[in-house]
Amino acid sequence: MSELSAPNSRAAIIERRAAGEIHWSGPVLMLLARSVLAVVAQGLVAVVLSVQGSASPWREAGSWPPVYGTLNDAGCLYALWRLARREKIGLIDLTGLDRRRLGRDVLLGLALIPPSLLLILAGSWLATRGGST
Length: 133
Known about the structure:
- This protein is mainly alpha-helical and 133 residues long.
- The chain contains 5 helices and no strands.
- The longest helix is centred in the last third of the chain and has 28 residues, at 102-129.
- It is flat and about 55 Å long.
């Protein structure tokens, strides 16, 4: 697949923009979507807890990040799918997957995982040490 024929190539984006298929509202929506959906999703969990008789449902909902995190992810994925569909592309087109570079990309990912984990673990270790120095 050449750069010019890729659905999400620069040339294709410029062409879809000129045809009026791409609007500024989509990227702005996606910038705000995660934050808004996080509050809405946690609110839904709080409502369920409230119906179940919780004395402090919002606070208890904070203990359920897998639930509201999944709702948040699903909402963002749905919004992204709708926006991509409006631009006449699919979600897979947003990844820029090029099968010719797949092997190299996998090796690069595997090479970056160990140093990334070291940085994460070092940060966690430093954070837990706190003011004990």
